[in-house]
Design goal:
Distance between the termini: 30 Å
CATH topology of the largest domain: Aminopeptidase
Strand order of the largest sheet: 1-2-3-13-4-14-18-16-17
Structural class: alpha/beta
Enzyme class: hydrolase
Number of strands: 20
Number of domains: 2
Strand content: 25-35%
CATH superfamily of the largest domain: Zn peptidases
Cofactor: Zn(2+)
Shape: globular
Keywords: Aminopeptidase, Hydrolase, Metal-binding, Metalloprotease, Protease, Zinc
Protein name: Probable M18 family aminopeptidase 2
Organism: Pseudomonas kuykendallii
Oligomer: single chain
Number of helices: 11
């Protein structure tokens, strides 16, 4: 079971280099399990026991399994995660030709650790919008092969490199793609048109725009002397998306269940498809159009906001509160912050701890040091919009926001087990 889940996660990460691809990967799994798309532009026809999903911007998705019990009686069991990760995104007019090299200008998306992006074999993926036969269409592309690199400056020319230096995103991050002759010009959009033709057989009249990200071509892997760890890109937060998906597909019972995987969490979630936008509330109100029924349902519901937690790094243990240092492979972490950076309260934490104990899943707690700032999640945002009770949890990881993160190889199975129990639970507190 554990090995199967870990390999499934590795395959999911490989297929999901961008939020667009992650959403497409989730759709593939959901449709194979009998979930049917609901188009936001059309009238919806749903029924008790039905399985549905809704997407927005091709990068956010909500999957719904409607129970046979009325939701105002049993409530909704919601699991929330996000599809985006910090990365380098290509600018609209990116072509740079300097010292005989073709480079692309990039913009840093989210709070990325920048140093690990150097000396990596990078590829490019995302969404391209183009004109075809007078119509505007979009398609996902993924070059897959290594086609760019950001070389470090040699230690001989930067003697203080190991003492730390501020990386200038404008000057130091443009990846190198090729060498070019002095009078040779390269049209990046023409390269994208060629990729559309090669990957999809589309002969676009013109590439109009794009949302493209560089990513590391080194695949995720189980690593360590005893296979204790999973190393890979975008574990924050595709790890939680995948766990939520597996739990939803494995859940038993007749309760109403929802999986919410939204884009733009790494930049604040304020967008049409982000957690700070209207997507989730609009979706739930269409399923529960009666105002009183909607409020009653929400007040009987619970959201598990799943986003990675900071594990205790053996080289930096002093960065944690001594009594609240989550260990890798020791189970999911309940995240608590009295200033509401996490939405956990004693009742929701108690219920999640109860679920873990009942299902023999180890559970931990995290509170940030009192002299350090605290990150946040979609939990407080969704709780603030819907008024739904929320617990913030996540699996402990190292190197969060690096191009390659590290998690425990036992923890995915722990999280899937407890989330499956949550989706299958008959009574909520």
């Amino acid at each position: 079971m554990r090995e199967q889940l870990n390999q499934g996660l590795i395959d999911f990460l490989k297929a999901s280099p961008t939020p667009f691809h992650a959403t497409a990967s989730l759709i593939k799994h959901l449709e194979a399990a009998g979930f049917r798309r609901l188009d936001e532009r059309e009238t919806w026809h749903t029924e008790a026991g039905g399985r549905y999903y809704v997407t927005r911007n091709d990068s956010s998705i909500i999957a719904i399994r409607l129970g046979k019990q009325a939701s105002e009686d049993g409530g909704l069991r919601l699991v929330g995660a996000h599809t985006d990760s910090p990365c380098l995104r290509v600018k609209p007019n990116p072509e740079l030709q300097r010292q005989g090299f073709l480079q692309l200008g990039v913009e840093v998306y989210g709070g990325a650790l920048l140093a690990p992006w150097f000396d990596r074999d990078l590829s490019l993926a995302g969404r391209v919008t183009f004109r075809l036969a007078g119509k505007v269409e979009s398609q996902l592309i993924d070059f897959k092969v290594p086609l760019a690199v950001i070389p470090n400056l040699a230690i001989h020319l930067n003697r203080t490199a190991n003492e730390g230096w501020a990386i200038n995103a404008q000057n130091e991050l443009p990846p190198i793609l090729a060498q070019v002759a002095g009078d040779e010009s390269v049209d990046f959009r023409a390269l994208l048109a060629d990729q559309l033709s090669e990957e999809h057989g589309i002969s676009a009249d013109a590439v109009l725009d794009y949302e493209l990200s560089f990513y590391d071509t080194q695949g995720a892997a189980v690593v360590g002397l005893n296979g204790d760890f999973i190393a890979g890109a975008r574990l924050d937060n595709l790890l939680s998306c995948y766990a939520g998906l597996q739990a939803l597909l494995a859940a038993e019972g007749e309760e109403s269940c929802v999986l919410v995987c939204t884009d733009h969490e790494e930049v604040g979630s304020c967008s049409a498809c982000g957690a700070d936008g209207p997507m989730l509330e609009q979706t739930l109100r269409r399923l529960l159009p009666d105002g009183e029924r909607f409020v009653r349902s929400i007040q009987k519901s619970l959201l598990v906001s799943a986003d990675n937690a900071h594990g205790v790094h053996p080289n930096y243990a002093d960065r944690h509160d001594a009594n609240h240092g989550p260990k890798l492979n020791a189970g999911p972490v309940i995240k608590i912050n009295s200033n509401q950076r996490y939405a956990t309260n004693s009742e929701t934490a108690g219920y999640f701890r109860h679920l873990c104990l009942e299902n023999e899943v180890p559970v931990q707690s995290f509170v940030v040091r009192s002299d350090m700032g605290c990150g946040s999640t979609i939990g407080p945002i969704v709780a603030g919009h819907l008024g739904v009770r929320t617990v913030d949890i996540g699996l402990p990881t190292f190197a969060m926001h690096s191009i390659r993160e590290l998690a425990g190889s036992h923890d995915l199975a722990h999280l899937v087990k407890v989330l499956s129990a949550f989706y299958s639970s008959h009574d909520l507190p």
